Amino acid sequence: MILAIETATEVCSTALIHEGKLLSQRSVNEKNIHSEQLMMLIDEMIRESNISKKNLDAVAVSIGPGSFTGLRIGLSSAKGIACALGTPIIAVPTLDGIAEEYRLKRTSTGDEIFCSFIDAKRNESFYCYYAVTQHDTVRLSEYAIKAKEEILRECEVKKAIVLRQPCNASAVAHLAERKKNELIVDDFSQLEPLYLRDFVVTPSKK
């Protein structure tokens, strides 16, 4: 059983999955509440699912790119739970999680190219290109950051679908379970979020 955490975007969410079945999920779509709500959502979900934390085999966490603060909250929470339970962490790239959610929900069956897209502020976005198959997504580019206008023009040329929706813990859970052997981190003491750019302190306007 895997507990999944997603705090890289404005949606704070968590999910439980076991053998391909999503057992439960919780989410709150509100800015600046991740640190207040995350552990509450996890405890509520586990209690209502009537399971023990000792039943967890791993903790999956959306590792970035995304909100610097959100990523730190998610990873520190995942490390705390994993340390307490003696379980590994499964580090899921956030853009891959968005791609997985699209794959799970899409209704078409043809070949498609699409672009996972996360607002990075300052008129920039984090992005990555993918192709989709029936059972998987295939990454076609590196994770990168670029001006939004450039990415959108590039998508037009490539005829790529632009995915702007937030990542969700349920997609992180499905991807973590499916690619556990590839993404698992047994020694996570030095694990850091995938930021893609340096942290810049912005002076207060007050």
Polypeptide structure, described:
The chain has 206 residues and is of the alpha/beta class. It has two domains: 2-94 and 167-185, Nucleotidyltransferase, domain 5, CATH 3.30.420; 95-163, Nucleotidyltransferase, domain 5. Helix content is 34%, strand content 30%. It has six helices and eleven strands. The chain has helices at residues 34-48, 68-85, 94-105, 148-158, 169-178, 180-183; strands at 2-6, 11-18, 21-29, 58-64, 89-93, 113-119, 124-132, 137-139, 144-147, 161-163, 184-185. The strands form two sheets. Strands 3-2-1-4-5-11 form a six-stranded mixed beta sheet, with helices on both faces. Strands 6, 7, 8, 9 and 10 form a five-stranded mixed beta sheet that branches. Strand 4 (58-64), helix 2 and strand 5 form a beta-alpha-beta unit. Helix 1 (34-48) packs parallel to helix 2 (68-85) and helix 3 (94-105) crosses helix 5. It is globular and about 50 Å long. The chain starts with a strand and ends in a 21-residue tail after the last strand. The model is unreliable at 200-204 (pLDDT under 50).
What keyword list fits this structure?
five-stranded mixed beta sheet; 11 strands; 206 residues; Nucleotidyltransferase, domain 5; alpha/beta
Q: How is this structure best summarized?
A:
The chain folds into 2 domains: 2-94 and 167-185, Nucleotidyltransferase, domain 5 (2-Layer Sandwich), CATH 3.30.420.40; 95-163, Nucleotidyltransferase, domain 5, CATH 3.30.420.200. Helix content is 34%, strand content 30%. The protein has helices at residues 34-48, 68-85, 94-105, 148-158, 169-178, 180-183; strands at residues 2-6, 11-18, 21-29, 58-64, 89-93, 113-119, 124-132, 137-139, 144-147, 161-163, 184-185.
